[in-house]
Amino acid sequence: MDSQGAVPVSRYVLFLTLAIAGCVIDLWSKSAVFAWLGMPGQNRFYWLIEPYIGFQTSLNEGALFGLGQGYTSVFAMFSVVAALGILFWLFVAKAAHDVILTTALGLITGGIFGNLYDRLGIWGQPAVRDFILFRYNEQYVWPNFNIADALLVCGAILMLWHSVFVANASVSDDASGDAS
């Protein structure tokens, strides 16, 4: 018999809301910015804070920071495996009882599906559309990224925070309970 019981419906709602909303916002923002600024190579910028933060379109056929260029199909396969692993961990292994993990994995899933859509070439080309630009000057330019990348990073930071602070507190509580 399972000691944790069924995953509450509210956790399914939280997870699906974050994943779907994140993916929709990512895909909408990519479509809007690419329609506005055009494809990469047209060298069009829009500065929010000139010359540090702005929008510039670029395509990434690799992964984070442009690593693994040309392996779009491999990264698409990894995305599917990661999404299946998240669903298993949350709802079969019942990690969804933890609201922080559910939130982190909802954000990550939104990012996975936003970039998977691009990698599969559904928008017209098998490459991830990036458009958010940070740079200090011509030498210090952060690789362009998108909302999906931001969701992935925020979800990963939340998971790291959870593993350091929440999981350790839970272990301490269990250890003190055993001593009494």
The radius of gyration over CA amounts to: 19 Å
Question: Any idea what the shape is?
Answer: elongated
Which structural class should the secondary elements be placed in?
alpha+beta
Uncertain runs are none
β-strand percent reads 5-15%
Q: Count the E strands.
A: 4
The DSSP helix count reads 4
What's the N-to-C terminus distance?
Answer: 26 Å
Helix percent band:
55-70%
- Mean pLDDT equals 91
**Main β-sheet, in a few words?**
4 strands, antiparallel
> What is the topology, as strand order, of the major beta sheet?
1-2-3-4
Characteristic key phrases:
180 residues; alpha+beta; four-stranded antiparallel sheet; 58% helix; 4 strands; elongated
